[in-house]
Amino acid sequence: MAIMQNETASRHTSRALPTPLLLWLSCSTLASLLFTTTYLIEGATRPGYSTLQQSISALSLGPGGWVQQVNFIIFGLLILWTAFAWRKVLTGGRGATSYPIFRVLEGLGILMDGFFSQDPTQGYPQGAVLTPPTLHGTLHVVFAFMAITSIACGFFVLAWRFLKEPHWRGWAAYSLITGILTIVFITLFGMANGQHSEIAGLYERLSTGLGTLWGILFLARLWLGTGFGAYQHPTNPNQ
Questions:
Q1: pTM for the complete prediction?
Q2: Residue 164, SS3?
Q3: Could you tell me the residue range of the domain that residue 205 belongs to?
Q4: SS3 of 88, please?
Q5: Is residue 71 domain-resident?
Q6: Residue 10 placed within a domain
Q7: What distance lies between CA 188 and its chain's CA centroid?
Q8: Which of 3, 25, 103, 235 has its CA 20 to 30 A from that of 86?
Q9: DSSP letter at 128?
Q10: For residues 222 and 17, is the Cβ–Cβ distance under 8 A?
Q11: C-alpha to C-alpha distances, 21 to 24, 83, 116, 168, 183, nearest whole angstrom
Q12: Structural domain includes residue 192
């Protein structure tokens, strides 16, 4: 039995990702942290804006709205750029094609939200008159839905991939739960926002924050030297 276990263990090795690739991959989480920090600061300092109630996208409205628009654009571009890094890391296994595609869709959705602002909402900007949905407001919702759906689907793809990774199997459940909770919280946000709930914005921030936390923990493990994807593969123990 001991011999069989040793042979099984020897068939898999874990080697750290090359530093340039790891830095490239890290840009997505750094972008997420920059995006989060920016909207938190903006939300805390913007007159009349309620972080608990209003959506993140509402920061694109009113005086200083350009800051959040640029925040969306930079975040989207960095997500698009790192999609190619994910393709390189995942080469030769599950999700090598589908996950980068979801990252591209996510990046495009976020990028487009920077160009198409949402319509004014109840209570923000102050004194704004609510109007029927506009074209740019509708496009904003469509692209936001595309982005958050792609994020959730990406977690499901990674959960499927982690099942085949000897050093990452526990992350399959974590990724699956993160994807499910992302959908749950964004659904609660949509329902609460429609009812002008005072905590609607909290649900959206929980939904987006899950991905940021996942990215931080994932990168921490990579930086500590655990291999993944194309850098964790079967080897011949006789070589």
A1: 0.87
A2: coil
A3: 17-224
A4: helix
A5: yes
A6: no
A7: 18
A8: 235
A9: P
A10: yes
A11: 5, 12, 33, 19, 30
A12: yes
